[in-house]
Amino acid sequence: MQHVAVHLHRIVLFKHLGRWPGPALAHGLAGIEQLYRSKLKQSVHRFLEEEVALPSKNSPCPCGSKARFQRCCRNVVREGRGRLAEIRSLLARAAASRPSSPAKH
């Protein structure tokens, strides 16, 4: 079952990148996180987590560009959050559909 989940993650990466992900990215959720962290400056990485509130659209971007968050990193952060949520739901569905091991007598 694990190889199916890995393949599904690579399909999501392929749809986003336009090419099949190579060994430079990890499998699954870690690969998606690596992809979006590579697009964002270190100071913005924390906003990929669902629990962290996003800055308002008119506040200065935390990356230090002096542009508004809306015009700078907002779209990449939102897209990254969406992709990470998509992968988490795929993992949850795969785990829920996994057959339980038969009971030994």
Task: Note down, in words, how this protein is organized.
The protein has one domain. Helices cover 50% and strands 0% of the residues. The chain has three helices and no strands. Helix 1 packs parallel to helix 2 (28-39) and helix 1 (2-17) packs antiparallel against helix 3. The two termini are 25 Å apart. The model has no long low-confidence stretch (mean pLDDT 80).
What structural keywords apply?
elongated; mainly alpha; 105 residues
Question: Main sheet?
Answer: none
Secondary-structure element string: HHH
User: How confident overall, as mean pLDDT?
Assistant: 80
Strand content: under 5%
Number of strands: 0
Task: Please estimate the helix content.
Answer: 40-55%
What is the domain total for the residues?
1
**Anisotropy-based shape:** elongated
**Termini separation:** 25 Å
Total number of helical segments? 3
Are there runs of 5+ residues with pLDDT below 50, and where?
none
The protein's oligomeric status is single chain
What class do helices, strands and sheet pairing give? mainly alpha
Radius of gyration: 17 Å
Provide a brief overview of the structure:
This protein is mainly alpha-helical and 105 residues long. It has helices at residues 2-17, 28-39, 74-97.
Write the layout of secondary structure elements.
Elements: H1 2-17, H2 28-39, H3 74-97
Helix pairs in contact: 1-2, 1-3, 2-3
